[in-house]
Structure formats: structure tokens, C-alpha cells
Amino acid sequence: MRTHLITGGAGFIGANLAQSLLNAGDRVVIFDNLSRGSRRNIEALGSGAELVVVDIAQHVSVDAAFEKVVASSGIDEVWHLAANSDIPAGVSDPNIDLRDTFLTTFNVLLAMKRHGIGTLHFASTSAVYGLQVSGAFSELDATLPISNYGAMKLASEAQIRAALESSLERVNVFRFPNVVGLPATHGVILDFVRKLQLNEGTLDVLGNGTQRKPYMHVSELVEAILFVREHSKESYSLYNMGPEDEGVLVSAIAEEVRNQFCPNASIAFGKEDFGWVGDVPRFSYSTAKLAKLGWRPQYSSMNAIQRAVAEVVGQEAAR
Amino acid sequence: MRTHLITGGAGFIGANLAQSLLNAGDRVVIFDNLSRGSRRNIEALGSGAELVVVDIAQHVSVDAAFEKVVASSGIDEVWHLAANSDIPAGVSDPNIDLRDTFLTTFNVLLAMKRHGIGTLHFASTSAVYGLQVSGAFSELDATLPISNYGAMKLASEAQIRAALESSLERVNVFRFPNVVGLPATHGVILDFVRKLQLNEGTLDVLGNGTQRKPYMHVSELVEAILFVREHSKESYSLYNMGPEDEGVLVSAIAEEVRNQFCPNASIAFGKEDFGWVGDVPRFSYSTAKLAKLGWRPQYSSMNAIQRAVAEVVGQEAAR
Questions:
Q1: What is the reported pTM?
Q2: What is the DSSP string of B281-295?
């Protein structure tokens, strides 16, 4: 039985990962400041998951929290998922991504070095790539992020790569696409559902609906990252995670939400080509490396959206 | 007459840049904490250069310093050169590069946004690339730094790219190779000269001497960055700066210093393939983009080393 520390484990992806690790018979400790994550997500995991409420952007707090867990059960692997997930907020105030995305990584690395913990998994993002020039981004391509969110994720990757040289033993970095599913805490589907809850007549969409992005369902994402953890032999293992298509249009997501939740509503699009400053309107990236390792998705982007819309509509109806 | 702010302008490259900008008839304001830079370097510039002693890793200080300069003369362009330049120090204590390389950039960007300054030039490094897999790195290749120095420079690039999307108007990012010349404040030539001053009989070299790196003389480096400033039409302009060869061996640098400074000394090499943890033992990168823009160096790496050894020997003899 191994002990996994998941930072941000009370959030959307973290809670799903925790469940899978628990199902496999391992022990899970979660560090979360409960800013977006919730106790309810942890309670749903049942026994075996331990929550420590701590803000890992604060160096002193995270170091004390590590010390306590190391003393009681030890930590075999760290999954660093804690980060700001509100991209527009980070564009208007760079301090948000500095604190919640960059400094959390810095502090986790310092604590791991101090306690001699060698294995780190990191949730990065397709947003590190920035604007598409041509073709699909591979892991060998340059990264030119256009949001502070993408910048601080890339900055975190850079710190981690350097730490592998001096203190870590094994690193997996996963560049996530847009991820959907339950428990929904943020994202385009939840936004649309909540807008329709406030105004049943019209769904107002940011941007002109032509933004096209790849989506992955959280169940497949967790399956894929656990596959990489098991099968990759590289000490620094960097993978794009995603579907094998070029994504779905925002307009198609809006229609899916409308059709499932509020069939009579009309949809009003904005004029801009992008949803907000720092939004990457269109991109696709290559998942050939992941396929070569042996994992391929069952879902298309549209499959993932359809399932997640049904799930989120159910979640919001139950509130 | 334009006003240039140079952070780290009392240091090696900054002082050379300041001199060139002054020679062109512009005004120069320098922010420096004088940790490696010195008042003597500023005095050598003559009138026209103003020094403000400030630690730009401290948000409050840098903001006040910007305010004062903006109120008196305005700032047309910012050259952000301030950074930790001691790579091994940053490997053993990550806080050094966090503070002096990463947070200085963060604070400069915040101040530029606040004061509506649109043009930024940034001194980055070939160390962002990390270990060579095959061929020469181009600006389109992935970056996997193996030192905190390289990581925090890449993290700075990422922040700057994102800031261009929301507040900056024009950015030049220069990835420097190893740079040599006067006033020497650090680096392999000065290390070797000082070792020979302490021990005339033997020059002890870190690593086995087979590390091979490209070198550029500071006079050509400044010429090249001013060329890019004048000729590049991209809003985000990223250039590898360097010679058009694969570099020189550390053993050749050691021999050059020995021959010029202490001809009877013997040279003792270490056993490791690298000089220190985080050292990139061998790399070359492509300067084809710079050549395409129209600038090509006159010096080879070895020419740059030969000239700089003579200069540094002179500097140290005069101390």
C-alpha cells in the first residue's frame, strides 16, 4: 500500500484521481485550501482519504503539513494539482497565478527536497503552448503561453525539470486539455448551465462561438495519467493528454447544454473570435506520444461533452 | 532622445549596453542593487547615466523607483537584465533564482503595466534549452532547463509572453550564450585567472575539460541586440544570440588563460563530464534566425575567448 499526497485533491480532477487511487487499494492524503475544492468531494470518497486543510502557497504552512504526514505514514508519491483554475482572473491580477500556481509548485518542491520524496506527478496544461501557428503541437515544440495561467504552469514545469536534476528521481508532467465531468466546480458547461438557470430565455456566449478546443472526460483523463505512471520508463516523462480529434466548437457545446437543459432557449453569441484576453481560440495538439506508449481514448471531444453535460445538468438539478 | 531603463545596468552586460545607448545619444537610467554590479562601472559611463540603487526583487521598492523616473523623464524602453548570475548557487538554494531572476521580472512587469510602458527587452539564456538531444536548438524547439537559473529565466520568458497579450506592446527576448569581456564580474575566465593568482603552479578545472560551449564577446552581443531592436518587426521577437560555431572546449579556455597569464602553470582536470550540477556540458544552438534578420558575428567562440582573456588579465593586473 503506497501513500499518495494530492495537492488540490478536494477539487474536480483531484477528487477523481483520489477515488481511483483508493480503488486500487492505496492510501491518499489531500492538501487543499478549499477555495474551489470542497469537503463534500472528500466525504464522497469514503474512508481512506485524509484531508488536511492548508494553503500551500504559504511556505511555512506547507512545510509543517508535509512534516506531519511524513512522520505518520510517509509519502511515496506527490500529485501536484493545486492551482488557480480561473484563467481570466489571472489575466487581470497576475498575483493570483503567481501565488496559487507558481508558488504552490515552488513550495511543494522545497518540501519534497527537504523530506527526500522522489516521485512527482504534475498537472500542466495545453495552455503552455499558446497560439497555434500550424499543425498540432507536440511535446517537442516551443511553448509561448498567452495567459498568466499558461505562463505559471510553464514556469512550474521549468522548476520541476530543474529539480529533477538536483533532488527528484522521477517526474510525470501531464499537459491537460479542457477536462469535463463531475464534480463540476468551474468551466464552460457549468457556466452555461448557470447562465440558463438565471435566464431561461437566452444563453449568452462569450465570443462568437467559433473557438474550437479538445475536451476530455475526467474518467478517461485519470485512466490515462495512471497508465503513464505505470508504463512510462522516462525519468522526466512529459505527455500531452487529449482526445484524437481537433475538438468541438463552443457553439456546439452551447447547443448541447441548451438542448439537454433548456430546449426553448435561444443562443446569443458575442462578436470576438476569443472568449476573453488570454483565451486560445483554436488549437489542437498531438497525442501521438501517448498513443505510442499504448493508451488511446474511447471518447471523442463531443462524446466527452455530451456525457458531461448530462452529468452537470444532473448535479445542478440536485442542488 | 529616448529614455532607457536598464535593470542590472551596473553589471557586466548592462554597463556595456548602457554605454552603447549613451553613445547613440539616448538617456539611461539604471536600477541596480549593486550585489554584483558596481558604482565604478557606472562612473566609467560618464555623465548621462543615472544610477538608482534599488532591489527590484522587492515589489514596493521597484514600484516607487519606477514612479520617480516616470514622473521626471518618463521611460520609453525597459531592458530587464537584473538576475542571479551564479548558477551553482541557485541549484543549492532555489530561493536565489526565485527572488533575483523570477520575482524581479514579475515586479518589472507589474510596474510597466501600472505606468503604461509598452516596450520590454529581456536578457534570457541558452540555459532554457537544457540537455542536447540532437542537432542545434532553434527558437521553435521545446525548452527543458536543468538548472534553477535556466528554469527561472524560462519562467520569466513565459510571464513576459503572457504580459504581451494583456499589457505590453513590444517584446524582444534574447537568449544569450556564454558572454565574455569587460568589466568581468563572474564567469569561467575570471575564475581561472583568480585561481592562478592564488596558486601559480596549478590551475584546477571543474569537470574533465570536455564541456564545449559557444561564447560571444560582449561588444558583439550588444551590437546584435541593438540590431534586433532596430530591425525585427515582430511584436514578440525571440532570438538565439551566438557565434556560428559549436563553441570551445573548457580545456582550450584553460590553456588560453594559462598561456596568457601564467605560462608555467600545469592544468589539473576533474573527472566529471560536467562542471557542476545543472551545468549543460555540451550544446550548440542555431543562430539562423538572427542571420536571416541580417546580423552575423565577426568573431568565433575562440576569437571571443582570446580577446576576453587578454582583457580580463589586464583588469586583474590593474586591481
A1: 0.94
A2: -B--B--HHHHHHT-
